[in-house]
Specification:
heterodimer, A: Elongation Factor Tu (Ef-tu), domain 3, SH3 type barrels, 2 domains, 6-stranded mixed β-sheet, 5-stranded antiparallel β-sheet, 2 helices, about 5% helix, B: alpha+beta, 30s Ribosomal Protein S19, Chain A, globular
Chain lengths: ~180, ~90
């Protein structure tokens, strides 16, 4: 992310001689690439109006307004496609964008800093939040009100309850 | 090839004991397990397990939909670094 902008995808190649480019979408729904209007490059000095024209394996084939031949398209390879954070639609209650949460300071209930939000995942058993501790260790917590009771995006912090493990009985590391 | 029905689902024995103990304690504790091969049984629903993925414990809250799956399916062993883009999360209860 560049300040208040979000990277939605990147131009990774060209296709044919009519200026089509191949784009890798980072969005949950790859069609969102054209949903937020014009996109810009990392520095914000060029804007691109995209039209999805097809697919090329896992990539999208995209036509950029004003790019009509391969020679114009080739220098664009490697360009990130950014959108302003303000253009993302507002969310329902208890919904958050990853980009808003990543980097927030994680504190425990007493206010002690326990780390920073490193990433969010979903492996099929609910959303998880990954905290990077000052020592560099990565800890995952379920993204629920029990483990993350307070989220304050304005003041850039969350309050977390670290996981309490049940005492290890028999069976620890002895199977297999 | 699927497992024969007459054998029943495979679960490491110690895991059942741990689950029973956690349920009896009524504390909201995470049960550390290394048994990725064990099948999730109906008696595990509502419990949170910390499934080892080789270097850390991934929290897995067992729900009804997950019965019959293995614990290892929900704790990948390889890290994927994606982009945040416009992805969203919903905070659960």
């Amino acid at each position: 992310m560049t300040e208040d902008r979000v990277c939605l995808g990147a131009i990774v190649g060209v296709h044919g001689i009519r200026g089509e480019v191949k784009v890798k979408s980072f969005s949950d729904n790859e069609k969102n690439l054209t949903r937020y209007g014009a996109l810009s490059n990392e520095r914000g000095d060029k804007t691109f109006r995209l039209k999805i024209v097809g697919r090329s394996k896992e990539l999208l084939r995209v036509k950029i307004e004003g790019v009509d031949d391969r020679n114009t398209a080739e220098p664009l390879v490697g360009t990130g496609l950014y959108v302003s954070r303000d253009k993302l639609p507002s969310l329902a209650e208890e919904e958050f964008y990853h980009t808003d949460l990543i980097g927030l300071e994680a504190r425990d209930k007493s206010g002690t800093v326990v780390g920073k939000v490193n990433a969010l995942y979903n492996f099929g058993a609910g959303d998880l939040i990954e905290i990077k501790t000052p020592q560099g260790a990565l800890e995952m917590l379920p993204f629920t009100k029990t483990y993350v009771p307070v989220i304050n995006i304005k003041e850039q912090f969350i309050i977390v309850e670290m996981m309490q493990f049940a005492a290890d009985g028999e069976g620890a590391e002895n199977e297999g | 090839m699927t497992r024969s029905v007459w054998k029943g689902p495979f679960v490491d024995g110690y895991l059942l004991k741990k689950a029973e103990a956690a349920r009896a304690s009524k504390r909201n504790e995470v049960i550390k397990i290394w048994s990725r091969r064990s099948t999730m049984l109906p008696q595990f629903v509502g419990l949170t397990f910390g499934v080892h993925n080789g270097h850390k414990f991934i929290p897995v809250l067992v729900t009804e939909d997950m019965i019959g799956h293995k614990f290892g399916e929900f704790a990948p062993t390889r890290t994927f670094y994606g982009h945040a883009a416009d992805k969203k999360v919903q905070r659960g209860e």
